[in-house]
Fold this protein.
Amino acid sequence: MKVSLFITCMCDIFTSNVGKDTVEILERVGCEVDFPEAQTCCGQPAFNSGYLQESKEAMKQMMVAFKDSEYVVGPSGSCVGMLQEYPAIFEGDPKWEQEAKALASKSYEITQFLVDVMGIVDVGSTFQGKITYHPSCHMTRILGVKDQPLTLLQNVAGAEFVELPIKEDCCGFGGTFSVKNDVISREMVKEKSQHVSETGATYLVGGDMGCLLNIGGRMQREGKDVKIAHITEILNQHE
């Protein structure tokens, strides 16, 4: 199975190890992975800020970059969720509507791809530690990926999984929301940090690095010894 890696801006700039882990997991389960170098931002920050025409230029570049891909897989529910919005954004556009539909139909978040496309619920990973999982808003509400990450985590040998209280609450990041509404954002992440502490977990796991960096930053400032880990970092641990 041929897969093209959609690296996302956050992973490309801040957490390249997540991209590495994603590739290694895909290769371990039998995928042939390539990396279209023409890819760029999915357009979400500009789109969510109201710059529709500007965001469309990035979206068009993405459609060109992944035109020949069989599957497009990324380590971010938020960014892959944005790709799923392309058909509605380009509806009625004679040149780009079909390209938008084609990209959306073959694009998946990494856990979604493993479980729903490949039928894999256990990637053979082993991890020693107590973990809890934060279900990011865009992954669950826009992309609709809820159970797949939990299924994979609960099959990690050696890991102790604890459910996060009030897990459906937003962490306050929300991309540009945290910039435009910083006071509200700080209170939201403060509450999320408290909920993480209540679990007694040593690792907070998630599928979107923006959320994890936001929560992790707050906990670090509070002096809490809780590590953050993208789900691929856990799934790529194996003997």
User: Anything to note?
Assistant: The domain at 120-235 is CATH 3.40.50.11810 (Rossmann fold). Residues 182-199 form the longest helix (18 residues). The chain has a mean pLDDT of 95.
